[in-house]
Amino acid sequence: MKNNWIVQGSIVVGFLMIGSGITQIFQIPLPGSVMGMILLFLFLLAGFIKLDWVEDFTSFQLKHLTILFIPPIVNLFFSSNFISVLQWHLFLIMLVSSICCLLGSAIAVELYERRKRRCSK
Q: What pLDDT, in 10s, does the model give residues 27-43?
């Protein structure tokens, strides 16, 4: 079952649909995808689902996650209502968040490298 992407994808999509159904039925203020991810995590912890059953499919999704987000983001920016409402606020938020992410990543890598050098001595 390790190489069968259809089965692995079906398991992940099944949890997505179950999570969406639960959030709609019980009016839980969470996106259905998040609820599905929580359920999948709990089933993995409990041992009802083995990691091998979904590992290839989910690792492929994680590798290509940024590609999956590009079309919705581009569509959002070309929406005239969105740009007219936020105007310069949007660009300021994007600039500040990009700088914070860049600095956070740089600090994390620097700390990792320092710890790695200490352990190798």
A: 988 888 889 999 999 99
What tokens were used for 115?
């710890």
Q: In the prediction, which pLDDT does 80 show?
A: 61
Q: Report the interhelical angle of 55-63 vs 5-25 (nearest 10°).
A: 80
Cα dihedral 27, 51, 43, 15 in deg (nearest 10): 30
How far apart (Å, rounded) are the C-alpha atoms in residues 6 and 13? 10
Answer for the pair 35, 17: CB distance below 8 angstroms, yes or no. Answer: no
How far apart (Å, rounded) are the C-alpha atoms in residues 73 and 65?
A: 13
